[in-house]
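Here is the promised in-class demo. Please do not try to memorize the tokens; focus on the logic of going from shape to residues.
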């Protein structure tokens, strides 16, 4: 079974590598943090019909950041990349479409709630 967060991390890694020629993992981790935080904001808003407090947002970002730094350290990143490097062309295309839809949707909903 594929871990969707690992696959998302892999796709973000590939996108950053393509755009910048390869960068430090912190940029991949920051992108994951932003997407997950936008998802939490959206779910919170759907349940409570209001935006969370600033303290909640800060705590949420800190906790997510720590978890991501622990989970997606460079050694694990290498394992994730190796695991998904061998995906078929059809799987890669479908994965790209799904990840693009997820990223655009997450960013759109997150920004629309904040703005």
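The designed amino acids, position by position:
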């Amino acid at each position: 079974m594929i871990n969707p967060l690992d696959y998302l991390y892999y796709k973000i890694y590939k996108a950053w590598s393509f755009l910048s020629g390869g960068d430090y993992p912190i940029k991949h981790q920051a992108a994951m943090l932003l997407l997950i935080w936008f998802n939490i904001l959206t779910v919170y808003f759907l349940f409570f019909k209001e935006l969370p407090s600033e303290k909640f947002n800060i705590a949420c970002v800190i906790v997510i950041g720590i978890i991501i730094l622990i989970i997606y350290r460079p050694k694990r990143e290498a394992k994730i990349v190796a695991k998904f490097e061998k995906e078929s062309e059809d799987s890669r295309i479908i994965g790209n479409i799904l990840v693009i839809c997820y990223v655009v949707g997450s960013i759109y909903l997150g920004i629309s709630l904040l703005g």
